[in-house]
Every structure is written in structure tokens, then in C-alpha cells.
Amino acid sequence: MIIKNTPRKNGFLVRNLRNLFEHRALWMYFMFDEARKMGAKPEVFTPTAIRRCGVYHGMRALTGKDEKVKTLLDKGGSCRLLKKKLFPPAGKMIFDMNFLKLDDDSFDVDFHYCPLVTAWQKQGCTDEEIDKLCDWAMEGDRGIADAFGCKLELNKTIAKGDGVCEIRFKRK
User: Do residues 20 and 96 touch, judged by C-beta distance below 8 A?
Assistant: First the structure.
């Protein structure tokens, strides 16, 4: 395997939070595997379904009564707002994130660990399967970005063996 995915911090709380994300990845993998066993083509429906889930979560994050949210949405969205609503401190620990740049037009963050990749590795997935599952899982993040008037760029991913996920949100 070329994928390297080792957390820098691994305390009790963060391990338990990561287990929740591993559980989510297991659901995704088992659905993929069962569909494949039944002769279905998971690549036909999985990315679309996951993107739909991302849009749902993004829109749900925006439907609060926060007047600032409404004002920023009227201006076409904001990467700053996306970070505020969807990147809490727990998420920073779970994915071992470094926030690099943040303004209304861009948000750059690096992930140094991925519990989803860990879950797929535990299931014996090949590097190619992990890369595919990762890309599908990122459809959720692309959907969230859409809801905030942004687009998501992935320059590097742990699933491709890069050792880091370079996640870049850009305002449309």
C-alpha cells in the first residue's frame, strides 16, 4: 500500500470521535460492496447520493436565524462563513487539520489524517478502491461547498498516497 495515514495526536477523546467517522465510512463501504456483489454499479448512484447529502447538510447549516448568514448569502456566499459553520474544533482534531488561509473568497485547509481511509484500510480495500471511495465521499463536501456558494478543489489527497489532503474552497 502506498497510502500513509498516521494521526499526529491520538488521545482518548479524539480516538472516540474518529471512531464515529470510521463508522460512517463503513456504512459507505458496505453499501458499495453489497451493490457490487448484486451486480449494481455503485459508481452510477453513489456520488450523486452523497453530493445530495452534502447539499442537505450545507443548506441545513444555513437555515438558522442568524441575520449575518442571510446577509452573506445574499452576497453570494462566503468561505469565511463555511469555515465558521462547518469546521468546529472537534473536526480540527479528528482530521488533524491545519487552517492555512481564510477570507470571504477562499479557505485553505490541510487534513493530515483521515478516519474514513482508516476504516477502508481495516476492511482490506485496495488503494484504488480507497481512492474511489474517497472521491465519492468528497462529493458530500462538494455539495456543502455548493450550498455556501463555493467550489471545492482537491489538489492532493491521503487516499492517493499524498500524505495530506489539500482542501481548497473558493467562492464562485
Answer: no
Q: Which residue has the cell 443548506?
A: 59
What's the CA angle centered on 10, arms 9 and 15, to 5 degrees?
135
Q: What is the pLDDT of residues 16-26, one digit of tens each?
A: 888 888 888 88
- Number of C-alpha atoms within 13 angstroms, CB side, residue 132? 13
Q: How many residues does the chain have?
A: 172
The three grid cell numbers given for residue 116, joined into one nine-digit string:
474514513
Whole-number pLDDT of residue 76: 57
Coil, helix or strand at residue 85: helix
| Interval 76-116: pLDDT, tens | 568 888 898 888 888 888 999 999 999 999 999 999 999 99
* Residue carrying C-alpha cell 456558494: 149
State the Cα–Cα distance between residues 45 and 140, nearest whole angstrom.
Answer: 13
Are 136 and 46 contacting, i.e. CB atoms less than 8 angstroms apart? yes
Burial class of residue 172, CB neighbours in 10 A (0-12, 13-18, 19+): exposed
Taking CB atoms within 8 Å and a gap of at least 24, the contacts of 124-130 are 125/29, 127/1, 127/2, 127/3, 127/159, 127/161, 130/3, 130/159
